[in-house]
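ok so I'm stuck.
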Amino acid sequence: MLKPIALAALIAVPLVGPAAAADCVGAGLIGTDYNKAIVTAFYETAVNAKDPAGAVACYVGDYYTQHNPMAPDGPEAFIAAFEGWTAAAPEIHLDIKRVIAEGDLVVTHAHLRQSPDDRGMAVMDIFRIENGKIVEHWDVVQPVPEDAANDNTMF
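replied:
not stuck anymore, here's the structure
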């Protein structure tokens, strides 16, 4: 199993890809609605569709600043890491529970599982949007425990 911090960091590091602009989500939306749509589409494309190159081609800007200390900046590092990650966890799936936006920031709260029987991790990501593209990322990751001190879920 990959370490939670490294796993979440892989999701949001940019790549260079061949996606056609017509395939990108967000046309006709403005402001925070647009920002929420592109972050959600970025996640869905990169993780669930396993097309990080397409996700970056549509939704990532000319530069990308990564704040997770386990993940380097830049597309080449992500390409290598993502290929290893999906090879190790081909059933990986991200279920976005909440998306909150204010100005140029979008926050997601998601359940990330490496396989259907994995308890998974609660992942909070913050993305910064500039000129309609994702350019910066922060994250916080917490494993979903088997037992909890309350009856509430993490989601």
